[in-house]
Amino acid sequence: MSSLNPRQKLAEPSTIQSQHWFTKLQLVSWSGIIIITFLSVSAWSPASSGAAAEPFNTLFQCGIGVLLSLFLKPIFDVAWYAPIALRTFVYLLAIAVIAGVWTVVRMESNQYLLGGHSLWPEFGGWYYASLFTFLFWSALYCGVKYFLLLQEEHKVVLKVAAIHEQEQLKRVHAESIAKEAQLKMLRYQLNPHFLFNTLNSINALIRIKSEKQAQDMVLRLSQFLRLSLTEAPLAKVSLAEEIKAVQLYLDIERTRFADRLRVEVDIEERASNSLIPSMLLQPIAENAIKYAIAQSVSGGTIEIRAKIDQNRLHIEMCDTGTSSDDVSETDSDIASTGVGLSNVQERLATLYGNDFRFTQTHKPSGGLIVTLNLPNEPAEETQPEAISWPH
């Protein structure tokens, strides 16, 4: 966009409505002056030999006034954007000169057409009337021009605002696309070890002729992958639905770890109906599986708790961790990278800005507590039920 003042684009009045406004102004203003002059002067003139010429005298004088106003117009246009003091001086000087010329013409035409004594001793009164007339015309001209310029400026402002609004919409759309792409990237970072371990477990079940268990595991894996890959990354689901997704994941892992994996869930009835980003808790559960359950010979417990506190959704997931004398040899070389938890935090920051809390705390007895504090967004009323799983 150009940095020019919108008024500068409209400096020439010829650009405003093709000059029709000036023609209308001349017609209306001078017709009014003729009517006022006739009603206030000509109609009340005493009967004399020159009375019949009075209407022609009025028309002649106003015709000269129209011609003289044409000289004022270019002077006004040139000085329109001058500083206010200079503009006022130029306008008043031009009006004084034009009014003086019109006064002389009026006095001479009046004496020539109507006869009578010389009017020069009355010059002051005649000049005052002429000055008042052209001041009125000038005020009308400047007022109409300024009003039309404001209209043009308003159109420019609306056009600029429309352009800015379109640019803003494009920017918001681009940011939305980028945001969605970022969320997809963060959510689709499934740990390949999970898939490899699951497929190995299925293969092992097939080798030992446990076809029914293998089929169940394949079914759960397909359901879990469908949930994780088909849900829109910006979509939110109820906590109850999210817990079901986590249950699918943990059921798959339970096939690997059997009794080594224990789960305890305590979800407040109101909290189960709150909306959270889809597939948000699975990376936290995966982190607990990888760095607590898998490394412990005796396994461990994953606890999931949720409640509503001061209109905020409070979710807590913790595991029992491992001790130095309870580490599986096969998994002792595994070190937590925290990639899954970092992805969860990045997703929350993208979706909620600063309106969330995400903390990780190590328990004195061992294990990690992951705490989420989110805005409470109730889903549609669907008769929520408290969720609990057997130990």
How would you describe this protein?
With 391 residues, the protein is an alpha+beta fold. It has 2 domains: 9-168, no CATH class; 188-324 and 336-375, Heat Shock Protein 90. It has helices spanning 20-40, 54-78, 84-114, 123-187, 192-207, 211-230, 239-257, 282-293, 339-352, and strands spanning 236-238, 261-267, 275-277, 300-309, 312-319, 357-362, 368-375. Strands 2-4-5-7-6 form a 5-stranded mixed β-sheet, covered by helices on one side. A hairpin with a 2-residue loop joins strand 4 and strand 5. Helix 3 (84-114) packs antiparallel against helix 4 (123-187) and helix 7 (239-257) packs parallel to helix 8 (282-293). It is rod-shaped, with a radius of gyration of 45 Å. Residues 1-16, 328-337 and 382-391 have low confidence and may be disordered.
What labels describe this entry?
391 residues; alpha+beta; 2 domains; five-stranded mixed sheet; 9 helices; 7 strands; disordered N terminus
Looking at the structure, the CATH topology of the largest domain is: Heat Shock Protein 90
- Just give the CATH class of the largest domain: Alpha Beta
Using only CA atoms, what is the Rg? 45 Å
Distance between the termini: 67 Å
**General form:** rod-shaped
Number of domains: 2
Relative strand content: 5-15%
Sum this structure up briefly.
By secondary structure, this protein is an alpha+beta fold. It has helices at residues 20-40, 54-78, 84-114, 123-187, 192-207, 211-230, 239-257, 282-293, 339-352, and strands spanning 236-238, 261-267, 275-277, 300-309, 312-319, 357-362, 368-375. The protein folds into two domains: 9-168, no CATH class; 188-324 and 336-375, Histidine kinase-like ATPase, C-terminal domain (Heat Shock Protein 90).
